[in-house]
Amino acid sequence: MAHVGSGPPTYDAEPTALPPADPDGLDDLVSDTVLDGARYGTSTLRAVSVRGDSARYRGEPRRDALLTARFGTAEDALVLVAMATGARATPGAHRAAAEACRWIGRAVGRSHARLAEDIRAARRGDLKSGLHRLTDRSLGKLRASAAEQGVEPEDYTASLRCLLLTADPECRTRVFFGVGDGGLFRLRDGEWQDIEPRTGDITGEPVVGFGSLPHETPEGDRLTMDLGIATPPSPYEPAPAPPRAPFRFRASVARPGDTLLLCTGGLADPLRGEPGLCEHLTTRWSTGGPPGLAAFLADTQVRVKGYADDRTAAAVWEA
After folding, report:
1. Which residues, other chains included, contact 300 with Cβ-Cβ below 8 Å and sequence gap of 6+?
2. With contact defined as beta carbons under 8 Å apart, do 267 and 196 qualify?
């Protein structure tokens, strides 16, 4: 398996150990790799979730979960890609991630007609507030599930990152929303741009390529987010619980030839930390159109020393 950077990673390139199985709980097993794809409107979708090198070595289940779903038919269809990562070093991490994907999938599916209409009409404000509510509701159900199981909410939680696109060939608006770490990148004209909505203060001028972007780009793309700043504790009351991770949202218009990449931290971190991986994917994805499923799997598995977490990614190629 290919690698980039200073040298080959420590772990073996292929799986070595399977996770332990319970004969009365086989539904709880998680496959090493999930791969999916589709083509709607002007976009071609590829999606993958792969167990990380360290989990493969230790025989631990993949903590990342992936859901791809189409709601509706013909040009009115709405495509959802949801990915989640369970909390590190917790026994039910893979279950929490899968449950988070299912809950947001149900919420989006039940509202898909309105969401598709808002995307086509570019109602960014309505989309942001509506998706924020759906996300809060879904993660709230995850916390309720933790209570039912008698575990702490922080031990049964997950980051959640989603992408929405319509099947309407006249609509090139792509919507990202979610909570937690990961990355949102765009490959345009042979250059990678980090377009992940930022939280906290932004200082200095925007940096071309990787780095912070202004509130609005020349193309009219907007970055919006909730900062989630906690109120200082009162000396007369117990300190409040730490704030939840902020909701992130971005709606942007794709150009022909763009590639949009949404991923969990397992791929986002090496993309930001190892220029060789960006260069490799630029070479692979800048010409020749969208890769097939097997080629996409190989591209997203290119290894980088020091990065051994699960990798989940969804990429959209614009015709």
Report:
1. 48, 50, 267, 311, 313
2. no
Count of helices and strands (H, E) across the chain: 7, 14
Amino acid at 35: L
Q: Cα-flanking dihedrals φ and ψ of residue 85, to 5°?
A: -130, 125
**Six token digits for residue 65:** 């979960």
**Helix segments in 226-274, DSSP class H:** 265-273
**pTM, two decimal places:** 0.86
**DSSP 8-state secondary structure symbol assigned to residue 205:** P
Tokens representing 163?
A: 């992408």
Q: Convert the pLDDT of each residue in 175-187 to its tens digit.
A: 999 999 999 999 9
Q: What is the pLDDT of residues 19-74, one digit of tens each?
A: 999 999 999 999 999 999 999 999 999 999 999 999 999 999 999 999 999 999 99
- With vertex at residue 251, the alpha carbon angle to CA 286 and CA 185, rounded to the nearest 5 degrees, is 35
DSSP, collapsed to helix, strand or coil, labels residue 278 as helix
**Among 161, 180, 179, 144, which residue's Cα sits nearest to residue 260?**
161
Tokens of 270: 């090496």
